[in-house]
Design brief:
Largest sheet of chain A: none
Strand content of chain A: under 5%
Helix content of chain A: 25-40%
Order of helices and strands of chain B: HHEHHHEHEHEHEHEEEEEHEHEEHEH
Number of helices of chain B: 13
Distance between the termini of chain B: 64 Å
Number of strands of chain B: 14
Shape of chain A: flat
Strand order of the largest sheet of chain B: 2-8-7-6-5-3-4
Structural class of chain B: alpha/beta
Distance between the termini of chain A: 44 Å
Oligomer: heterodimer
Radius of gyration of chain A: 22 Å
Order of helices and strands of chain A: HHHH
Strand content of chain B: 5-15%
Shape of chain B: globular
Structural class of chain A: mainly alpha
Largest sheet of chain B: 7 strands, mixed
């Protein structure tokens, strides 16, 4: 096997790309946080700093895609380490399991015929 | 077609290398009477196309109801990019990072996860994750007893405002180690810990658990409870919702000293409800307790060339190193931790605050709608985060069933857990950022109609 181009090696933490003046996320609801906070008991509100990274979506995608390249994995190599988790699983297993396990299926729901009738 | 696609020549070569004549010979050590004749309970094989069709049909049978159930597992919007990245082959399978050289990607992800959890909780150090919030609480209880030998007690004060399901899991984990969680009653008027009954505790105890928000969605008085427990020589375990921590004070800053251990369920951060799992527990503590922390910890270091790198650290605590480990946990929920880290990276501080604020706003909006509903009352008031209790003028099970007919998961029947406390026909309702004003109006209208039908219009 020959290598086409050199892998891009990520050597920073996600926090190092963070900038709180950046407003690039469309993933969260559009809401005025300060107005809502007024309805909560003042003495329980967070006064300590919340140090989560403030990074654009594409930067996050690049950071973690690059980190994925720092793993040995069964898709790329023989992977003799580990016990139960290192086998190849057909791609369909993941795709189809995800189709049944949806965001709205709550564990306390009384009856989900499709889910509970498996295996057939 | 067999799934393992080796040719007979490749099989012969492999057998020859290890000096074995046949595959059968590999199983010689299993006595014949213990061998299986075949897997007759496993259905015969189907092609991928057939399986895909079958599962698609099954999934469509379940519909897509509006979910207003919470109780520890919450529906939130999950950005599309999370699972696209988390299910990459490099993360999806190869997540046991024992050999650091082969797993720098996963190790750095876990390191970032730990840093985010430490920041959210305001604690010094986080582990690499646990199975889920309930078993995480069990681990926190065990840890508090190990770490607080001064108390000379194996008693834990466990408020009834902690989820009954969590309490059952904790009981199962700790009961054979002589540890007893004593239940502290709740105040009937406001749904929080009964402070008078708590302060009547005269026997020593190792730790107090403080849920915030509690199972009813109500807010405990975290600061005075933390200080009181510390004055008694006990530790404090903060059981927290990580989304709420965007707005509510971090357990590391409760009272004058902060809690000793913070623990909780991180399913809320990018993981689908999926009918109950897989989920992910998190646990963080003060620096002085780090050697008592169960599970894995990833540390950042430098290699021989001075370049930064990551590895599992403080492994003398771990089960695979020594018999007297801090815990039986010798793994972590790496894949779920990867999704959680991605969620927090995508959302960021501002995004998480908006998600939390939207939960509060929507919950208050539904409460306003329900205030005019005949026969419904709010036994614990309405000062809540994203979950609240109502009592119904009709049988709660029948209401839940009738709402399901209209494609609404109405909430959780909590009378099943609190019947002896006089809490009858009580429904625990959760509203997150995923609900639109139309969804909430539909919920309120449907609930009113269902109650009217069940009570013969008397209400």
């Amino acid at each position: 096997m020959t290598q086409l181009n050199e892998a891009v090696i990520e050597d920073k933490l996600i926090f190092e790309a963070s900038d709180f003046t950046r407003k690039s996320s469309s993933l969260a609801p559009d809401i005025d946080v300060d107005t809502v906070i007024k309805s909560l008991p003042e003495h329980l509100l967070r006064k300590s700093d919340l140090q989560l990274p403030q990074v654009g979506e594409l930067q996050v995608v690049r950071h973690y895609t690059r980190l994925s390249q720092k793993n040995f994995s069964i898709d790329m190599h023989f992977y003799p380490l580990g016990s139960c988790t290192m086998k190849y699983n057909p791609r369909a297993c993941n795709t189809l399991a995800a189709r049944l396990c949806r965001t709205s299926s709550h564990g306390t729901q009384q009856y989900e015929p499709g889910y509970y009738e498996l295996p057939v | 077609m067999p799934y393992i696609p080796h040719t007979s020549q490749e099989i012969a070569e492999m057998l020859s290398v290890i000096g074995v004549d046949s595959i059968e010979q590999l199983f010689d050590e299993i006595p014949p009477e213990l061998r299986s004749d075949g897997l007759d309970k496993i259905p015969s094989r189907r092609s991928e196309m057939q399986v895909q069709r079958l599962l698609t049909e099954k999934s469509m049978q379940d519909g897509t109801p509006l979910c207003f159930a919470g109780g520890g597992a919450y529906e939130h919007h999950i950005p599309a990019a999370i699972w696209e990245i988390a299910t990459r082959g490099e993360f999806y399978s190869a997540y046991t990072p024992y050999q650091a050289e082969a797993s720098q990607g996963t190790l750095q992800v876990i390191y970032e996860f730990q840093t985010m959890i430490a920041s959210l909780t305001g604690m010094d150090v986080s582990n690499a994750s646990l199975y889920d919030g309930a078993s995480g609480l069990g681990e926190a209880v065990l840890m508090s007893v190990r770490a607080n030998r001064k108390a000379k007690s194996k008693r834990i004060l466990m408020p009834a405002t902690v989820s009954s399901v969590y309490r059952q899991v904790v009981e199962t984990i700790v009961k054979h180690q002589g540890i007893t969680p004593d239940i502290i009653d709740f105040d009937r008027a406001n749904g929080t810990i009964d402070i008078d009954k708590l302060k009547q505790q005269s026997e020593p105890f190792a730790a107090l658990v403080i849920p915030q928000p509690n199972y009813f969605g109500c807010m405990e008085d975290e600061h005075s409870l933390t200080d009181w427990a510390h004055e008694q020589g006990a530790m404090v375990i903060g059981l927290v919702n990580p989304v709420a921590l965007a707005l509510l004070e971090a357990p590391g800053n409760w009272g004058t000293q902060g809690v000793d251990i913070a623990v909780g369920e991180a399913q809320t951060l990018g993981i689908p409800l999926s009918s109950g799992g897989p989920y992910i527990g998190f646990m963080a503590c003060k620096q002085k307790l780090v050697r008592q922390l169960p599970g894995r910890i990833v540390g950042r270091t430098v290699d021989l060339d001075g370049k930064p790198g990551f590895s599992l650290t403080l492994q003398a605590r771990e089960q695979h190193i020594r018999p007297k480990a801090t815990s039986n946990i010798c793994t972590n929920q790496s894949l779920m931790a990867t999704a959680t880290t991605l969620y927090l990276a995508f959302m960021g501080r501002d995004g998480l605050q908006k998600v939390a604020a939207s939960c509060v706003q929507n919950t208050q909006a539904l409460i306003e709608l329900l205030k005019t509903s005949p026969g419904i009352s709010f036994p614990f008031g309405t000062s809540v985060f994203h979950e609240f209790v109502i009592t119904l003028p009709a049988d709660v099970e029948q209401v839940i069933e009738a709402m399901a007919e209209e494609d609404i998961v109405a909430g959780i029947n909590i009378s099943q857990y609190y019947a002896q406390d006089g809490l009858e026909n009580a429904l625990l309702i959760c509203v997150t950022e995923t609900k639109s004003p139309e969804d909430m109006a539909f919920f309120a209208d449907t609930l009113n109609k269902v109650i009217s039908d069940l009570t013969g219009g008397a209400e």
